[in-house]
Amino acid sequence: MTARRDDGSAGDADYGQIGASYAAYRRPDPRIAAAILSAVGSARTILNVGAGAGSYEPVDRQVTAVEPSESMRAQRPTERATAVDATAENLPFPDRSFDAAMTTFSIHQWGDLDAGLREMRRVTRGPVVILTCDPALLDRFWLAEYAPGVISAEAGRYPPIAAIARVLGDVEVTGVPIPLDCVDGFNEAYYGRPEALLDPLARTSCSAWSFVDERTAAAYVDRLAADLADGGWDRRHGDLRTQPTFDGSLVLVVSRPAATPRVP
């Protein structure tokens, strides 16, 4: 059974502690949203698992949201449907209830990845769409030089793509370019705006920072600030300030209903 924290958070991060700034800093980026919408296709009924504050939920479809964290449910805009208090591993819906299912930046929080993926496939007639990060690609990002513990925490939490495919069968994996002015403040969104990560709320809105102790995190930030002040960051990475997109670890994983699961 998935353990849940005081506010209902079911994963390894405590969103009762770190989730207060998510609605402001983790806004849906329209270009990433377009990729998700294309993947769900013509689906009219969509399940959003680990829905958080409602980012990336299509506004022109019938969306059912599932979110275990009370603090995240409280940040949902009033025009969004009230989220169901449940976890991915135990979805309270009959088989084949939805045309499509989606989850964004969520699967690394699940206590049981296989069970959550099986549940998503069970309740979905059409595509299962997963926006996640490929841990094998995280070292592309310059933050690995400044905050190696943050990147290693991310790499240890995000499941390999092969682990997803093992449950869902054949999947389509597409890299999602991150725009320079991305408004969804995950770490790589700041690839060309490094000063943004000096903002403590920006860091708090990236859950991997919560796995680094305060003293270590402060040292990471001090090093970045010093390199920005003396021009070291710009000498090594300054071209990124004008690079329109960055091909980092962000990927869209899509399972079509014809796929054959390979779970033992």
Explain what the structure shows.
The protein is 31% helix and 13% strand. The chain is α/β, with parallel strands linked by helices and 264 residues long. It has one domain: Vaccinia Virus protein VP39 (Rossmann fold), CATH 3.40.50.150. It has a six-stranded mixed beta sheet with strand order 2-1-3-4-8-5, with helices on both faces. A two-stranded antiparallel sheet has the order 6-7. Helix 5 (113-122) links the parallel strand 3 (100-104) and strand 4. Helix 5 crosses helix 8. The radius of gyration is 18 Å and the shape is globular. Mean pLDDT is 90; it is low at 1-10.
Which descriptors apply to this entry?
264 residues, alpha/beta, Rossmann fold, six-stranded mixed beta sheet, two-stranded antiparallel sheet, 11 helices
Distance between the termini: 20 Å
Mean pLDDT over the residues: 90
Tally of extended strands?
8
Q: Identify the CATH homologous superfamily.
A: Vaccinia Virus protein VP39
CATH architecture: 3-Layer(aba) Sandwich
Question: Which consecutive residue ranges, at least 5 long each, have pLDDT under 50?
Answer: 1-10
